[in-house]
Design goal:
There is one protein chain. The protein is an alpha/beta fold. It folds into 2 domains: 109 residues, 60s Ribosomal Protein L30, Chain: A (2-Layer Sandwich), CATH 3.30.1330.30; 181 residues, Alpha/beta knot (3-Layer(aba) Sandwich). The chain is built from 12 helices and 12 strands. It has a 7-stranded parallel beta sheet with strand order 8-7-6-11-9-12-10, sandwiched between helices. The protein has a 5-stranded mixed beta sheet with strand order 1-4-3-5-2, with helices on both faces.
Length: 308
């Protein structure tokens, strides 16, 4: 929806915009690299689409530049109220914008943004509620988990490798879109060593809960899970009001034995009886994380009341 003062703001922005007409322009090269998922040395990432750009500008992040195409100029009134006067606005043709865009049908607006830098030391004091992504490879799952974490009151998200499998970058293009902007607001620590993470969680007395498949509870667990010494609990058997961290593992192999053993407990999500001989084996990583985070929010009684 256009801002009431959108027309005037649009004219101001258009007047200050620099036109780009060459594929070899240094700004286009920067946008092309960033929108393809390449992280700059200073951590700058590329975001595309009016909602993500608006979220970045409204979150007070450092925005290096805004790029709009001819058709994308229609979005300028929407972002004008949160666009800082020092942010350079670059204009280009629809064709050149499409050459740098990561989406098939680009909206014609993108930005170079520096996400917030967070650390475990900032996330752990107080009644922390963290979601830890250990070897979650699908960027869509990563973004959805981050979105659920923000929606259900988590204090932050952490990513680490598991059995040599890294977690997809939460600030990559697909993960950012799946997070619907949550990755630009929720504190995230990306790519930490699992050993360091577990050590810090122990120092700060954060309870660690390892999410496992429901089959574990029925005796169909594999050797890796059966070797884990920690107790097996349902989500409502856990006191989520205490400092807590939820471990979410790889989509195919789950959590490795070392993380299962390090957990204070394993948590599974009971499911309804199968309605066919071959039923649902388990929820995917994003769905499982969402259910667990919702139960934590319910217990913590931090539900935002609807507006009257």
């Amino acid at each position: 929806m256009a801002h009431p003062a959108g027309s005037a703001a649009r004219q101001t922005i258009k007047g200050n915009a620099a036109a780009i007409t060459s594929r070899e322009n240094r700004w286009l090269k920067r946008f092309r690299a960033a929108l393809s998922g390449e992280r700059a040395d200073d951590g700058t990432v590329g975001i595309e689409g009016v909602r993500l750009v608006e979220a970045a500008l409204g979150s007070g992040l450092l925005v290096e530049a805004l790029l709009v195409s001819e058709s994308g100029e229609r979005h300028l009134p929407r972002v004008a109220p949160v666009l800082g006067s020092t942010v350079p606005v670059l204009r280009t043709s629809d064709k050149l914008f499409a050459s740098v865009a990561d989406t098939r049908t680009p909206q014609g607006i993108a930005a170079l943004v520096q996400p917030r830098q967070s650390t475990l030391e900032k996330l752990l004091p107080g009644t922390a509620l963290l979601v830890v992504l250990a070897g979650v490879q699908n960027p869509g799952n990563v973004g959805t988990i981050v979105r659920a974490a923000e929606a259900f009151g988590a204090t932050g998200a952490v990513t680490c490798a598991a059995d040599g499998i890294g977690t997809s970058d939460p600030f990559g293009p697909k993960a950012l879109r799946a997070s619907a902007g949550s990755a630009l607001r929720l504190p995230i620590v990306h790519g930490i060593s699992s050993t360091i993470l577990l050590g810090q969680l122990k120092i700060f007395r954060v309870k660690v809960y390892a999410a496992v498949v429901a089959a574990t509870a029925t005796g169909n667990s594999n050797k890796k899970t059966s070797e884990a010494a920690s107790p097996l609990l349902c989500p409502w058997d856990i006191d989520w009001k205490t400092p807590s961290a939820i471990l979410i593992g790889n989509e195919g192999s789950g959590l490795p034995t070392d993380l299962l053993r390090a957990a204070d407990a394993r948590v599974y999500i009971p499911q309804a009886a199968a309605t066919a001989p071959v039923g649902i084996e388990s929820l995917n990583a994003a769905m499982a994380a969402s259910v667990l985070l919702y139960e934590a929010m319910r217990q913590r009684n931090i539900v935002r009341q609807p507006r009257s």
